[in-house]
Amino acid sequence: MEQIKAIFWIYKTCLIRTVELVRDNVGIIFAPIAYSVVLSVAALLLAGLGIVGGILISVVVAACASSGLYLIENVVRMGKATLQDFTRGFSAYLMEILTIGFIFWIPMRLLAQFAFTTPNGPLIYLGVQILLYVIFNPLPELIYQSRVSGLALLSASYQFIVENWIEWLLPNLVVGLVGYLLRNLIYQLVAPMPFFLQYFFVEAAFGLFLTFLMIFRGLLFSELNGTTRRSRVYRYKARSSQ
Fold it and tell me: Which of 67, 72, 171, 198 sits 20 to 30 Å CA-CA off 223?
């Protein structure tokens, strides 16, 4: 019972802090719009270059992901992200993200070639994707909150999930479900608007949701990583008694 109280106290603390940080950094909800523009321009310029173009587009995608993580890192750690952080972030974690992408790319490509030549192959492939999503779900937070890289990141992610799978996955599923339900509401609200306004409000809503989710995940990860259920109960009792 004490462990349940402790983890829900952590959830409450992270949610309150997330709302405060989103309010103080509302400008970053428009970052996904900027990234979509960057990716659209990159696709337009590089799509005709074949394999080389595909590789370069992958680098641009990784750079946008790096910028997004760097923005979240600054919000979580220092409470504020700036326009300079947005531009500086394109190279902050570029190599880490490219390395992880390369590690997954080869085995998943081989699995796909094998899976889609067997009767139950697509189902097996989907099962592997779900398993990898669960095991390596905290990779974004590990990238900017830990000092490990490469294969060590995968090992650290697996260890974190083994130790915190309930505490970590439950709130992520709840927030994701809420976001899915709100998506339909957003589409209904913007349906009468002109296309340009529809695009703007949908992207802004997506940016708000993604910002909220990633900040909450960052705060929750920092609370869970390196702690045990017993130590969280002790910390809960110490703070609630103040």
Answer: 67
